[in-house]
């Protein structure tokens, strides 16, 4: 089975992809990439150009499956490409498997429910959320010549600063179990231990922390060494985006789902534990 993997950065796909019996080919939106089989002749600045890029690759190549990374411009391209050719698209998949010659995407839903979504189109399209990264080997890429963009004009080009949560070694996660008046103490604790602060979607929606602090399906994926979850229930949309080596969960609810994922579980009120942690950290400075 031939697969086309579409990405912008070299390490956009998880290592689980390589464990499947696929004949992999790579298409990169990044002009500087040398780890792809297909490169565009000009920078792809919008999804229209992305669709043109994939369409031209498909003119001379047949793939059974096209796997798109979860990067913004790539997944936008996936949606427009599927719409243009009336293909089915499995979006927000955390993993996938094959059964009876069909691809099944595992898609997290609300209230800790996950759906197995089957694609019946040919080729099969899927947007894959990745957490682990891999380095791709060098290739001699084929350059795909694109149409000049007519709807978008590039006026300036500057590098976007990566969200610090993505490279943080220690992250303190804030959930709805953290009262507003406790948040300053949480922020101080994080500062003292050199941690970044993230949060769940409801906390971000409430304005307690900025939108770029949201960890989860509608935010960023993180891979810290240590994740300290404060007042976080453990909804699948959040926890599936956390790939920590060690998770410490603090929650007053003894039945919180986060305890099923944590290495160390503390069933206490967040404010009580934070006060003790602050005293401990300050005593060691």
Topology:
Blueprint: E1 2-7, E2 23-28, E3 38-40, H1 47-59, E4 65-69, H2 72-85, E5 89-93, E6 95-99, E7 102-108, E8 114-119, E9 124-128, E10 142-144, E11 170-174, H3 183-193, E12 196-199, H4 201-205, E13 226-230, H5 236-239, E14 246-250, E15 264-266, H6 270-283
Parallel strand pairs: 1-2, 1-4, 3-10, 4-9, 5-9, 11-12, 11-13, 13-14, 14-15
Antiparallel strand pairs: 6-7, 7-8
Tell me the number of strands: 15
CATH hierarchy, class of the largest domain: Alpha Beta
Model regions low in confidence, pLDDT < 50 over at least 5 residues? none
Question: What would CATH call the homologous superfamily of the largest domain?
Answer: HUPs
Order of strands across the biggest sheet? 2-1-4-9-5
Count structural domains: 2
Give me the number of helical elements.
6
Structural class: alpha/beta
CATH architecture of the largest domain: 3-Layer(aba) Sandwich
Q: Roughly what is the average pLDDT, rounded to an integer? A: 86
Helix content: 10-25%
Percent strand: 25-35%
């Amino acid at each position: 089975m031939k697969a086309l993997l579409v990405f912008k950065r070299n390490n956009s796909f998880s290592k689980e992809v390589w464990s499947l019996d696929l004949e992999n080919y790579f298409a990169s939106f990044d002009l500087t990439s040398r780890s792809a089989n297909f490169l565009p002749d000009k920078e792809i600045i919008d999804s229209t150009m992305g669709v043109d890029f994939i369409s031209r690759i498909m003119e001379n190549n047949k793939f059974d499956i096209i796997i798109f990374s979860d990067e913004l411009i790539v997944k936008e391209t996936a949606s427009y490409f599927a719409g243009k050719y009336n293909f089915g698209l499995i979006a927000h998949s955390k993993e996938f498997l094959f059964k009876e010659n069909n691809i099944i995407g595992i898609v997290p839903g609300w209230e800790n429910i996950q759906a197995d979504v089957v694609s019946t189109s040919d080729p099969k399209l899927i947007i894959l959320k990745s957490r682990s990264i891999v380095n791709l080997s060098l290739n001699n890429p084929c350059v795909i010549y694109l149409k000049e963009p007519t709807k978008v004009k590039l006026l300036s080009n500057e590098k976007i600063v990566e969200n610090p949560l993505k490279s943080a070694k220690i992250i303190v996660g804030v959930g709805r179990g953290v009262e507003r008046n406790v948040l300053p103490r949480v922020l101080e604790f994080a500062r003292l231990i050199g941690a970044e602060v993230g949060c769940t979607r409801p906390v971000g929606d409430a304005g307690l922390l900025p939108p770029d602090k949201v960890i989860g399906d509608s935010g960023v994926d993180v891979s810290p060494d240590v994740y300290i979850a404060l007042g976080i229930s453990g909804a699948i949309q959040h926890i599936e985006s956390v790939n920590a080596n060690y998770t410490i969960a603090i929650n007053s609810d003894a039945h919180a789902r986060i305890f099923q994922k944590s290495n160390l579980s503390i069933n206490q009120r967040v404010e009580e534990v934070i006060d003790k942690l602050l005293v401990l950290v300050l005593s060691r400075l």
